[in-house]
Specification:
CATH architecture of the largest domain: 2-Layer Sandwich
Number of domains: 2
Helix content: 40-55%
Strand content: 5-15%
Distance between the termini: 122 Å
Shape: elongated
Number of strands: 5
Radius of gyration: 40 Å
CATH topology of the largest domain: 60s Ribosomal Protein L30, Chain: A
Order of helices and strands: HHHHHHEEHHEHEHE
Strand order of the largest sheet: 1-2-5-3-4
CATH class of the largest domain: Alpha Beta
Number of helices: 10
Length: about 260
């Protein structure tokens, strides 16, 4: 029996025609976003590249309808002004430099032996002295053979006006004696011994202060004997600024209570 052919469905070609319109819509949307992105950061070179791309894709009509490019001038950014140091600041820096050189000369033998380190920074002059030079193990009395060197340093400092901060440091090995229950007391006592020697050698007492850091702020690891020896030290810090006058800061508005007032 001969087969009968099914007549072609007239709707087969119509079902997929929406894809053509959808593809055209996606292409136009892509071109729109490309234009918006390019215009968000306009430069002459980028605009020419965009125009050539649109010309090749859509023809000359689209390129002719693009608005002219106006390059906005770059804003003038404020330049950071380099402030020239004042005459007093320059004089103080020169004075501090001379002071550091004088201290290095006084402690020349210890500096060459690596037991004293003299440095200068914006904070001031740092004289780092190894504790083994100054004290016996677990003690806070300055060795007699080292007192002469500290007295020479004090003579250099006596003629100046900068504040002097003496800082004591220890390693992390615990100590517990009747005189020093912990490393806090030992570090503070060692710094105090240096301060007392400075006062006896002519340095004005109001210029001096003592800080005991104990085992905190080590210079290196305490895992080796060399590291522990490096961390046991006393640092004499000659501050760059002279101690200023203390001024009380007034509170905004009336005080709630003052000393001696009764509510």
């Amino acid at each position: 029996m001969p087969r009968t052919r099914r007549p072609p469905d007239p709707n087969v070609g119509q079902r997929d025609r929406w894809m053509v319109s959808y593809a055209d819509f996606i292409t136009l949307m892509f071109a729109l976003f490309v234009v918006l992105y390019a215009l968000s950061s306009v430069s002459e070179g980028k605009f020419r590249v965009l125009g050539d791309s649109l010309f090749n894709a859509f023809g000359n009509d689209v390129v002719e309808r693009l608005p002219p490019v106006t390059q906005a001038p770059a804003p003038d950014l404020p330049l950071r002004k380099l402030t020239k140091p004042t005459e007093s600041q320059a004089r103080q820096r020169e004075q501090m430099r001379g002071m550091a050189q004088d201290i290095s000369k006084v402690l020349d033998a210890l500096v060459r032996g690596g037991q004293v380190k003299v440095t200068q920074s914006n904070r001031g002059i740092s004289v780092e002295i190894n504790a083994s030079v100054l004290f016996a193990s677990g003690q806070a009395m300055v060795r007699p053979e080292t007192q002469r060197a500290l007295q020479e340093v004090a003579r250099v400092l006596a003629g100046t006006e900068q504040g002097i901060q003496v800082e004591g440091y220890t390693d992390d090995a615990p100590i517990s004696t009747g005189q020093f229950p912990s490393n806090w007391e030992l570090s503070a006592a060692r710094a105090s011994s240096v301060v007392r020697l400075f006062i006896d050698s002519g340095v004005a007492e109001p210029r001096l202060s003592v800080i005991g850091y104990g085992p905190n702020r080590p210079l290196t690891s305490n895992d080796t004997s060399e590291g522990r020896a490096r961390n046991r030290r006393v640092t004499v810090m000659i501050l760059a600024e002279a101690p200023g006058k203390v001024v009380d800061i007034a509170l905004d508005g009336p005080a709630i209570a003052r000393t001696g007032d009764k509510r």
